[in-house]
Amino acid sequence: MASLLIKNGTVVTATDQSIADLYIEGEKIHTIGTNLSMKADRTIDAKGSYVFPGGIDAHTHMELPFMGTYASDTFESGTLAGLHGGTTTIIDFAIQKQGDSLGNALNAWHEKADGKAVGDYAFHMAVTDFNDKTRTEIKDLVEKQGITSFKMFMAYKGALMVDDRQTIALMEEVKKYGGMVTTHAENGDMVDHLIAKNRAAGNTAPKYHVLSRPAIVEEEATGRIIDLAHQGDHPLYIVHMTCEEALERVRWATKRNQKVWVETCVQYLLLDESLYFKEGFEGSKWVMSPPLRKKKDQDALWSGINQGLVHTVATDHCPFCMDQKKMGLNDFSKIPNGAPGVEHRMELMFSEGVVKGKISLQKFVDVTSTAPARIFGLAPRKGIIAIGADADLVILDPKKAHTISVKTHHMNCDYSAYEGWNVSGKITHTILRGTVAIENGKANVGKGFGKYLPRTSSGTQI
Ligand code: URP
Ligand code: ZN
Ligand code: ZN
Questions:
Q1: Hey, which of 90, 187, 288 would you mutate to test ligand 1's pocket, going by the most ligand atoms within 8 Å of its Cβ?
Q2: Whole-structure pTM over 0.85, yes or no?
Q3: Which residues line ligand 1 (CB under 6 A)?
Q4: Tens digits of residue pLDDT in 17-54
């Protein structure tokens, strides 16, 4: 069995930090201590660097068929890019086609990922058509396939959206087996109405994307889904929250002791809606749903992290190249929604969050790795540095700096959402299940190295 010794690093977990050595045998962490003297096949001196648990991005869309095209990263290119940026595991969404079964969706996603992904992966199931037939599939998905989280969309009417009745029924069925519903919270009818109004007025530019999806759209849906979950005492996870108003609905729910898990994404913490108002078609690069918001919303989300209201930071990685974005050149509502991000989440959160004093090292580890692992049933295998856990580790040198650019990134997308951003701290090594997968920008692993991760439960470990 191959062995690896990582010496003298500052080992950081979601609760503490200390200078320690890690001895890894095969895929697992074998020993944690100081001055370890085991003979290993390889030793890395991590003095002066941080050692974090491998990143877990709980929200990605590789090769998603969406809005008449496909997200441009495959499981191979997207997970490799993730590894370059310290993300060792992704949870992607298998999406049911309306009128089709959940089983077929799962098979389609396994087809895309199995034997191709370079990093480890799990799936959420996105339910777009909940009926008596779909209901019978839930038990098997949870108990046999390791799919314990079920996403529903309150927007994208006519394509992905489900109504409240389906939502309530889905929540009831999923809870029976220890699963959880997760939600894209935007009021699809309000969005459709505002899009139609803007189109009728001849408003075609990318800025009308945000103008058709104001914060109230998200606030209303967030409040409604929280109430639907509350009436049946169901656990709930809200994906990609963007704004103060929606977060206030969550704060209010906590006052009646309701447990709602909240995810935001790195772009909502760092970028704002002014990008949509750039000249020409440039703003299309950031067309995503919900859209980027105001600076005051970024502040609310950062505080939300520290107040324990926001639990995870993901990316909603859903890249489209500029040729694809141009499908909406003359109609903002046809711009494929989504942006690239899986590669830079960890370094951006370290640089903008930890280095700039917004969050502690422990919060950084929690929101990028430990909390998603616990919420989605990947712990204790993933998300921690502990004896017996998978040796998924990131070594980050805080003294190194670099600049993000499309010229150097590994995502299959011809622009970067963070072009020219200077980042303090550089990931020098990403270790996946004991293998040094990335070393100073060079990949030692390739297609098929990633493993599928069946999950145990969702919404039960706090
Ligand atoms: O704009 C986005 N977010 N695209 C991906 C689909 C979704 O809503 O998560
Ligand atoms: Zn969404
Ligand atoms: Zn998404």
A1: 288
A2: yes
A3: 61, 184, 288-289, 316, 318, 337-338
A4: 999 999 999 999 999 999 999 999 999 999 999 999 99
